Structure formats: structure tokens, C-alpha cells
Amino acid sequence: MTAAHPERVPAPTLQRDGERGLLGGVCAGIARRLGIEPLPIRIVALVLALAGGIGVPLYLLAWAAMPGDSSARGLGRSRRSAVEVALGVGLLAISAMLALRGMGLWISDAVTWPLALVAGGVALLWRGGIGARPPAPAERTPVAAVPAPVEPVERVANVSRQGLGAALLVAAGLVFLQATGSLSAARDVILAALVVAAVLALIFAPWTLRMARSLTVERAERIRSQERAELAAHLHDSVLQTLALMQKRADDPREVAALARAQERELRAWLAGRSPAEGERSLAAALEAAAADVEQRHRVPVDVIAVGDADLDAAGEALVAATREAMVNAAKFGEGSPVAVYAEATDDALQVFVRDRGPGFDPTTVPADRRGLRESVVGRMARHGGHATVTAAPGAGTEVELTLDRTP
Amino acid sequence: MSDTRVVVVDDHALFRSGVRAELEGRVDIVGDAASVAEAVEVIAATDPDVVLLDVHLPDGSGADVIAAIAPQHPAVRFLALSVSDAAEDVIAVIRAGARGYVTKSIAVGDLADAVDRVHGGDAVFSPRLAGFVLDAFADSPAAPPAPVSSEPDPDLEQLTAREREVLQHIARGYMYKEIAHRLGISTKTVEAHVSAVLRKLQLSNRHELSRWATTRRLVD
Description:
The complex is a heterodimer.
Chain A: H1 26-34, H2 38-50, H3 55-65, H4 72-80, H5 82-102, H6 109-131, H7 142-145, H8 150-180, H9 183-248, H10 253-271, H11 283-298, E1 302-307, H12 314-333, E2 339-345, E3 349-356, H13 371-383, E4 386-392, E5 398-405
Parallel strand pairs in A: 1-2
Antiparallel strand pairs in A: 2-3, 3-5, 4-5
Helix pairs in contact in A: 1-2, 2-3, 5-6, 6-8, 9-10, 11-12, 12-13
Chain B: E1 5-9, H1 13-23, E2 28-33, H2 36-46, E3 50-54, E4 56-57, E5 60-61, H3 62-69, E6 77-82, H4 87-96, E7 100-103, H5 108-119, E8 124-125, H6 127-136, H7 161-171, H8 176-183, H9 187-203, H10 207-215
Parallel strand pairs in B: 1-2, 1-3, 3-6, 6-7, 7-8
Antiparallel strand pairs in B: 4-5
């Protein structure tokens, strides 16, 4: 605060000093205003309180009149010392009454304890309600505005402080009634009040319930309409665009099929709650991404079935890259037949099978263009401590089997 | 088996007429239905051999249809058909008693074959279903399931090595005939393995399967 309002430093306003104060911070506040130590003021106050008792009402008056110190540290202190405050004010009240007795102005014993309790309780309640009011926005330092997480704690402290204050007041009332012997009469009054309260509750319960329910309904409705808007936005960006594209390309069945597959894949991922970029470090997700890409480039359906899953290390990355090469090969030479990819991750090994139902070939007479498979798949797997087997026969399709042993 | 009597249950009219056109000549489509209530009525009236059953229906699920029909018509076989890839949907309908599961994007000839195979009492596993089952019966033996009313049979809780092998081949895209050839067994034996897996899937107490089923309120 001082940083925000440097002009206040030379002449601080007269307000209670919660940081340095012992009870309500009145003496410390006055001392700060005067620019001296609080001790002399305190001695004066104590003397006034003990001699003649005038100090006590003066103190209370000053406490009520002086605005509370709203600095964060002041609040922190007031939070810590709720019981101390109640105790202190209560003791002050007793001392005041003792002083009154000393002056011969005695009030009956029946009033002494209740008054002390009332003083403590009121001090607590009012402190919570008035003294420690939240700082006005203009007074807030930028730093103080940031830490929102403090608030719930503060609220709990407020509640406990007010609870304690209310308990003290109720206790005061009971003690007073007990002492004056009118407790039984009060019981009738309290009973009557309770009955009235219950009747009122019964009368207003339906209305309150309806109110609460309509609020809930309204909230649910709002959430639902938000969800609907989000869904509509997504469908518009994805499905409707693809459908429009498919109508334009209606003369090319392969293109249409590929568009439909790509959209289906995207929609499934969205329904399953996966974002496209997320989780590509896992084997299954990386294979799925590779399949989508190969499908997009070569216009051949690639189905991935994964059992188990594993995080990818360097060798795993190599396995995915080799699988991708095998997919591309299957898409190129499979004559448009769907490519089936099966991956299984166990504790011992990662295994991937890539299979097409194309014409196949005779492994003993490998065509030159199939040597790429040997290099980029078999070679790559060998370099990373795995191995690859290509099974093919004329007319029976081709299957590439990739195995990577997992070191425990 | 060109006279297999089939009922198609699906809430999309477009899809029903598509299936009708595709299967024309291969099977005899004796009725169709768009909801659980309609399906129960039509199936009871026509008593078909095979019901092609959508997993999701407007007033319930495919599993509800099976639950309503199976007690009175034990001979009716169900083949689940879905666009859904969600494991819990698929497993739920299988556990309710469907003899197989295929996706709606299945090729025309394959669908007719699947209908015939289900009619013949065999199980039909799509590659994806095989993947789900392998996942559900993942290698570590299940922790002994909480004892339910009946005594759990330990044989039901695990796949044999052979069954696992067969499922892996299905997931890799092999036909039963090819699997038989590769494993050096007969096609009948492959079918027997798949049926055994189906039975385990329906009767197993395995924790995950139970969890999948309870999310669909099929158990208890």
C-alpha cells in the first residue's frame, strides 16, 4: 500500500494498527499517527482504565470510530488472535466494572459476567463484520490483488470468528437469564420463537426449493447449450467440410473412400477424447498416426489393431518407422487391398505385423523395387536390436513381421 | 444355405435397405426392425435363423433384444453389427449372447459369410474383436475374481496358447482357412478354438470383463 500511495507515508491516517496492536490496535494506531512508540499511549490508556475506568469506554469508542487497518498483515494478525481479542476485551470490561465498583457505582453481580461475555462476543463479531472489511479496490496493491487462493482460508477464519462471537453472546444471554431467574420464562419465549421459525420455514420451503431448483435447471441448460454450440462448431469444421468435399469428388470413388476414412478416423479420435497431437509417444498412438498418414498419401485403407501399449524409446521409434515403411510397401504393392496392422506390446517384446492381400511375390526372386523393404525395414530393425521377417507367396499376399525384444 | 432366414435390426432405414440389397440372393430377409420393442415383436413372429443386431438402438441396446428373446427362442442366433469401436459395447453384446461381432464397414461377401457361419453355430470374430479379447485376457493370469454365486472355473479365466495364437492370426487379418493352413490344423479346429474363446468371453468372471459388463448393467 505504501508503494501505491507514497504520499501517505509522512502523515499516516488515523486508523487502527492491526500489525503492532495488542488488543484492537487503537493505541498503536494513535502512536503511528503521532509518530511515536505505542508504549506511552498504552500506559496512558491503562492508567485511564484503572483509575476511574474512563479509559475503557474511551478505548471502545476509539476502537469503533477508527477505521480498521486493511493491510494484508493486519488481517493475518486479526485472524490469528480471535480468541485473544475476545479474552482481552472481556477482561477490559471486567476491569471497567471493577473500577466502577471502586467508585461506588456498582451494578449487580448478575450483570458482570454477561457484560464481560457480551463485550468479548461483540468485539469478535464487529471486528469480523466492520473492522476487517475487505480493502477497497483503490487501496489494493497489485500484489494483494493476485493471491486469490488465500480467500477461502480467510472466509473459514471469518466464520469461526463469528461463530465464537455468537457463542459468547448466547452464553451471555443464558448467564443473564439464569442469574435473574427468568430462564424458565425465556424458555417459553424461545419455544414460541422456534415454533414461529418452523412455521415460516414450512411456508417458505417450497418457494426456496423451487428457487434453488430453477437455478440448477438454468445452470444445466446453460451448460447444455454451451456443449451444443461446441459440438456444432466441431461438426461444422470437420464433418460438413468433408461431406462437401466428397460431393465435389463424387466421380472418384477411391478419393471419396479415402476422404470418408480420414473423417471417420478423426471423428473417432474426437469421440474417444483424444486430441490429434496428444499421446503420440505411445506405440499404439504412433502407429495410428502413421497409418492415417499412409492412408492419406496412398489412398488405401490401413487398419491398426493394438493389444497393450508401451511408451516409445529410440528403439520403439525405429519400430514405428519400420512399420511405416512396411505400410507404405503394402499400400503400393497390395493393389489397393486393405492393409491390416496388428501390434502387440507385452513385457517381453513389441511385435508388429503388417499384412496386405495383394498378389504377393516369390521371395527367391525378389524384384529390385522390393529391396527397399529389405534395407529400410529389415536393416533398420537389425540396427536397433530387433528383427524383421517378410513372408510372401505368389497369390497369398505379403506379411511383414517386426519384433523388438524389450530389455527389462 | 441360401435360405438362411434373417431379421435385420437397425434404427437407420438407409442401412437396413443397404443390407437388404447386399444380401439379396444370399439369404432370405424375413423382416426388419428399428427399435428394441419392434425387434422383440418381429423376431417372435418370424422366428428367424439369424438376427443382424445393431449394438445401439433408440430405446435400448442390442443386449436388451437378446435378453428378451433368448429364453423363448434359444435357436435364434445373433450377430452384432456396429459402427462402434468401443470395447465395452462390443464385449457387452457378446456377453449377452451374440455369436459374433462385425463392423458395418465389412465387405459384402464377408457379411454373407459371417451370417452363414453364425447360422452354422460358429463364432464370428472381426480382427478388432480379436484384439479386444486379447487385451481383456492379457497375459498375466487374472487375480482370482471375487467369488460370485457359482464356483469360478479357472479354465474360463485364461486363454490357452493355441487360442491366443488363433486370435492373434484373426487380428492380423487372416481367414479361418489361412489360419488352419498356417497352424497345420483343420478349419474345424480353428472354429472350435474360436467358439471356445467365445464361451470363455461369455462365462468368464474376469475382472475387466465384469467391469465392462457392469458399466452396461448386464451383471446384476
